[in-house]
Amino acid sequence: MHIIVIGCGRVGSELATRLSAENHSIAIIDKSERAFRRLPDSFTGQAVVGFGFDRDHLLQAGILHADAVAAVTSGDNSNILSARIAKETFAIKNVVARIYDPRRAVIYQRLGIQTVATVTWTTEQAIRRLIPDSINPEWSDPAGKILLVERNIPDNRCGTKIEGLNTKQARVVMVTRANVARLSNPELIGQEGDVLHILIEREALKDFDANFSGKESE
After folding, report:
1. Using CA atoms, how far apart are residues 105 and 117, in angstroms rounded to an integer?
2. What is the mean pLDDT of residues 43-68?
């Protein structure tokens, strides 16, 4: 995957370093060239001096072939602007934005942008939102047989009952909507932007994801 990280502060540099180490193609944008000093010598990605809401800088970072964008500067306004441009202008499906003011979370969610508040930020949370089919679970039992995974609801599942996704080996137990979590119930209808929390047997994950996304399992 090609992933663009906007902001090379503590969070951005950590995220870019982690993703680069996992062999993803990374471009990181920051307005200050000095900020790139936070990146280790082992970082193999591209560093772009500029702004995450500037079209030319985004093009330089490879936005036309990007799979995901993380806006993690120190400013909410910059993050939401960068995230909206990535989502609305360049049709990037997986966009995550860091926020300081949790009251703005609903605004982001209505725009289809996943958020992580500063107080709960972890690199793992960001990666789960940037790479929604990642096997990295939120939780697993000690034997590693049962996983709790996050999945962004696909377009073809919006408007249908969440319960219809359940199988003998997988069950949607919770839905996060507009950054508010709720337990799943038989009447809950999927909406754009929903994040589903699914308990699933590890051995069933590949087939579940293939069916979930409408793609045939290899």
Report:
1. 8
2. 96
